[in-house]
Write a structure and sequence with these properties.
274 residues, alpha+beta, seven-stranded mixed beta sheet, three-stranded antiparallel beta sheet, globular
Length: 274
Amino acid sequence: MKELTDKELRTLQLEMTSYIDEICRENGIEYSLGGGSLLGAIRHKGYIPWDDDIDLVLTRANYEKLLSVLMENCPEHYSLIYYQVRPTYLPFAKLYDNRTYFTSKLDNLNKGTGVFVDLFPMDVMPENAEERDEFKKEIQQSAIKLASSAPGLVYASASKWYYFLGKMVLWFPRHLANMGKNKKIAQEVDQQMQKYNATDEQLVGYVYSGYKTEYFKREIFDSYEDVAFEDYTFRKIKNHDGYLSMLYGDYMTLPPENKRVNHSYYHWYWKTEK
């Protein structure tokens, strides 16, 4: 087995994102670079130097349209991590390169898949802070239920060993209760995240986000434009300042070195020798 270089990892991610971009442009689907990927585009014209993944965000309608197209039209070397296609244990989708795979001592929720690009649905949330916090807590509990349905000790997957041990013990009763019910739970969580989409509430965000301030006015996802990212041209919301300021505050200032984190607990490999 041959481990991917950092350059190969990024090349595969960029090629997948370029494919998604092509599909979206052909089908009238709007998307935006999100999270650290959008920050990288604005601050670094590409990846944040220590980053190692790409995040895309889409309003729920665009998210479901994209997944529908991808389920019908994927190159042979790409596959979806999506509950309608295969067992999934997190409430969002990924496109991955099936010519690759990963190893990890701690995080194996997506074991058997490869280098990926994250696809996050943006759903409506309550404007009232207390109601919004309660909604997010409900989704967090449902997401735990979803993760606990994973087989073996996979349900305890984590980025650090002490998180792994804690989840292994605390989630074990839920694991026993939810084994074999993955698709049903995944569908329930997906529907639950859309609870407010038909209402007049004016905030939107990824409901299961780890960021406490990930909620934005609906109109922020009304307007998009092209943006340079490495040697590619992708899409972003026009009001990137409103988005990034909510998530990161003074986003143009580099964080201290001890806050510059990546997915170093993964090791990526080619399935066949290159």
